[in-house]
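Lecture notes, unit on protein representations.

Consider one protein chain, 235 amino acids long.
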Amino acid sequence: MTVNTGPATDAGVDRRARGARPAAPARGDRLPPPPRERRPLLAAFAVLLIVGGAAVAGLLALRADARVPVLVAARDIGAGEEITADALGTTPVASEGTLLVPASQQELVVGQYARRPVSAGQLLDTTMLTRLSTLTDGKVAVGAALAAGRVPASGLQPGDIVQLVRVGDGQGEVVVPDALVSSTVQAGDSAGTSVTTATLIVDEDAGASVAGLAAESRLAVVLVERGTPVTAEEG
């Protein structure tokens, strides 16, 4: 007996064909991998960071080399006070072309006198120093802020001899006939008005009254004798 296996064979083939995986493409049909461009860019960026960091480090080193130690007040120094070694400290700054005093000149500064008050932490410059003692026994230094019209139009300078006058009610009274101007600073107040701040050397018994008049804005200055600036006397 002849058995017909044709349809059964075809069905088996169909079932195997439906479950079979598609054939892999030939090796020559694969897409080429994308070019690797990120690594060269990252390498170049890393080189730039290294070079930039080296440049910044070099610049900081150059700036550090340009800083030199200068003198600074280690504590408050009063006007006319003799400067001692314990009143001085040092700090590095870029001081080229300034009047700041190098730390190497500390021995020359010790024994000089403060021409005006110096606050702790303030850098010392040559305009703050004098070899002349303005505060002798029986003398005191008084600070006064003098508005325009209370000082001569030519201004004041260290070494001037002045009269200190109490003003008010259209009258004036001389309270100190021969005060010494130790230092002056010209500035402006919040309203833009010119103000002269002066340190005045007066007799000890007149110090309190002069300070009171200055605080009440009732003090005026009359120039008696134009003094020689301390810098010229020091030679």
